Structure formats: structure tokens, C-alpha cells
Amino acid sequence: MAQLPQTKHSIIELENSWLTFWFNRPKKRNALSDDLIKDIQNILTAIKDDRSIRGIIFRGKGGIFCAGADLDGLKKISSAGDEAYTISLEMSKQFGEVFKMISKAPQFTISIVEGAAMAGAFGIACASDLLVSMSDARYALTETRIGLTPAQITPYVLNRMGYATARKMLLLGNLINGKEGYDMGLVDYLVNDETEISDVISGIKKQVHQCAPNAIAITKEILSNNDQIDSERAAEMFSSCIVSEEGREGIASFFEKRKPYWAREE
Predict the structure, then answer these.
(1) Contact predicate 162/181, CB 8 Å
(2) For the chain, give me the number of helices (H) and strands (E)?
(3) Which carries the bigger pLDDT value, residue 83 or residue 266?
(4) Distance CA 88, CA 238 (A)
């Protein structure tokens, strides 16, 4: 059994060969801070070669999955001046690495979404092997609405939802609930309470335990090799947007709680 590292913004539970990774920043709606991202990376690195761990479940404390990027990080970028591009480039690369690590994890991965999965959290959900969602959970890729691009997330959304449906979500940034996500092919299992979550997860675990752990790992490696993801280029595209006139206006309008100039009614 791998020795698990200490975590700062997450809680790790290991029971009956399944690891549950809890995002644990409920007062911040479990937003993806630098420390939370490092927690994910450190845990996934520690258990990468441990076949005694059959699966990983991602959940959020406080009844919310994850609100996406930490607003403190966006504020830092928006006030960084000439350093904004470099800071955003590093942040985007970190997000891309997390999505890739979840997608390529040799263990079976499940995201259980309650409350909301926005922006980067949407990427985590889509990078997982299965997505279990409360019917009233909310999903959105709001990047284009504030002058940015969901570059790192796009390949995982395309893989999960299919081109036509994903294209609409990625371009328009519209909000959907869990029921709509299930009808669109985003969500694998739709649930309404904790009892249903437990029943669904129990059923998934039974199926996973019918499969050889190394066979799952190798099959996931084969599947991952078909991904065409250039994380470096995606980070450059995101960072170019964030320092552009639209990006600066979009972030400013977000924090000032107003519409950006392109969304104002004539």
C-alpha cells in the first residue's frame, strides 16, 4: 500500500481499496486553490503504481463539488500588470496537468457532483471515467462570457459529450442542471439523494472488482493514447486571452458584478 502524503485543502479517505478525495474548502465553495491542485497531484502521484487501490472518487464537502478556479488567483493575475501572462501561463499548465493526471490515472475514477461543477471543476468531472450527478447540480463553462477560453478543458468535454453538444456548451457558456446533463450525455448516473449515491457507487464498485486491476490500467493507457491534448499550446491560448483587452474587461466585469461591454444591451 502506498504511503499517502499530507494534504492541506482536501480530506483523503481510504476504505476497502477505494480512495475518496474530498475537496475541503466549503467556505470557498471548494474552489481550486494552488494547494488543492497540489493535493490532487501529490495523491495521484503517490498511488499511481498501487494496484491495491481499485478506484478514486472525487467529491466536495459542504454539498458542493467545486466552483472552479480560486478567485484569489484571478485577482492576482488581473493586478499583475506585465507579469499577468507568465502567472496565467503557469496556472493554466497546472490545471492541464491535473486534468491529464485524472484522465490517465490507472485506477477507475468517479466524480460525484453535488451543488455545482463550474469551469475547471467541469474539466475534472469530464476527465473522470464516470460522472454521478445530483439532478439539481449545476454545470457551466463560463470562460467565453468573461473573454477567456476553456482551452485545457475542451478535449475532455469533447470526449465526454461528443462534438456537437460540447461545441454548444464551450462556445455559449450556458448553465445546465444535472437532469439536462444526463439527457445530453454528460452525466452517466443521475441521483436525487445520498441513499441513491450510495447505491450507485456500490454497484459501480462491484463491476470494477470483477475486472483485473492491471487490465483496467492498461486499457486506460490505450484510451489515453488516443487523446490529442497539447497542454502547452492550450496554456498559451488561455494566457493570451487573459491579458487581452477582452480578458481584462471580462475579469474586471466579473469582480465588479456588471456585464462586460460586449454583453450590454443597446
Answers:
(1) no
(2) 11, 9
(3) 83
(4) 8
Quote the cell numbers at residue 174.
Answer: 450556458
Q: What is the pTM of this model?
A: 0.91
Helix axes of 120-127 and 154-161: crossing angle, nearest 10 degrees: 50
- 10-199+210-224 maps to which CATH number? 3.90.226.10
* Domain ranges across the chain: 10-199+210-224
The three cell numbers of residue 99 are 486534468
Q: What is the mean pLDDT of residues 238-257?
A: 90
* pLDDT, mean of residues 74-101: 91
Q: Is the pLDDT confidence value at 266 over 70?
A: no
CA angle 185, 189, 192 (to 5 degrees): 120
Residue 265 burial (C-beta neighbours within 10 Å; 0-12, 13-18, 19+): exposed
pLDDT of residue 1: 63
